[in-house]
Structure formats: structure tokens, C-alpha cells
């Protein structure tokens, strides 16, 4: 099971369960971590579900399922829109604002972490998270 910032919880097959409420305080809290980052590394499935939705909010073209867009939600949309997206995928093509990682995720993320820049946010499922989390020095928590 994974949760996404658009108020949905998805199972491993990508099917969504009913939304749960994120209020201004919860989103404002999350925003502080995203504000401190310049890169968001995501699995392909999460990228496909999260990024187009939030890019729509950021550009003012609200998705049909969008709840009320509060100031904290609007801020999150702008924060994530400015971030470089790193996507773990063997089939997706590169595009503006999107970098692809194929093959050795651990090694490539370690290399990315050594480059100049701010923090990196990681969003992925358990199959990807396990090897990444067990690599010494790759992940830190704040």
C-alpha cells in the first residue's frame, strides 16, 4: 500500500481507495520538506499518478477530481512544479524537467546525491524502497 499527496491511497495494483482528508496544517507541514528539496525521485507508477495531477493544479487547469485548492495545496503545486523529477523507468522517454534512471537505481541515486543541489525527495513502493533503504549512506531522514 502507498499513499500519494493527492489524498488517495493506492494498493500495489494502483487501484485507489477512498480519499482521506489533508487539511492546511498537514499540507503546510509537508511543504517545508519539499521546499528544502530541488529533486523528486519517483517510481514510474507514482510519477504517472501524481505529477500530471499536480502540474494541472500548478498551471491553473484543475483536474476534474480536484478538491478545493487551499493556499497550502497551491503552494505544494508550485513547489513540485519547479522540482526536477527523476523517474525510475525502463520504458519512459526523457522530457523537459524529467530525468530517467534505468538499471542500477542504487548506484545512480548515490551518484545523484553526491552532486551539487538541495535535498532529494523519494517516493516509491516497497519493492524499490527495500534495496534503496538498505544501502548504507544512501538515505537520510530529517
**Lateral strand order in the biggest sheet:** 6-5-4-7
Question: How many strands?
Answer: 7
Mean pLDDT: 81
Give the fraction of residues assigned to helices: 40-55%
C-alpha termini separation: 23 Å
Structural class: alpha/beta
* Radius of gyration, in angstroms, nearest whole number: 15 Å
General description of the model:
It is a single chain. The protein contains 5 helices and 7 strands; from the N terminus they run βββαβααββαβα. The chain is α/β, with parallel strands linked by helices and 142 residues long. The chain has one domain. Strands 6-5-4-7 form a 4-stranded parallel sheet, with helices on both faces. Helix 2 packs across helix 3 (71-82). 15% of the residues are buried. Mean pLDDT is 81; it is low at 1-7.
Task: Give a nutshell description of this structure.
Helices cover 40% and strands 20% of the residues. The protein contains five helices and seven strands, in the order βββαβααββαβα.
List the main descriptive attributes of the protein structure presented here.
5 helices; 142 residues; alpha/beta; globular; 40% helix; three-stranded antiparallel beta sheet; disordered N terminus; four-stranded parallel beta sheet
Topology, please?
Elements: E1 2-4, E2 8-10, E3 16-17, H1 24-35, E4 37-43, H2 44-58, H3 71-82, E5 84-88, E6 98-101, H4 105-114, E7 119-123, H5 126-133
Parallel strand pairs: 4-5, 4-7, 5-6
Antiparallel strand pairs: 1-2, 2-3
Helix pairs in contact: 1-3, 2-3
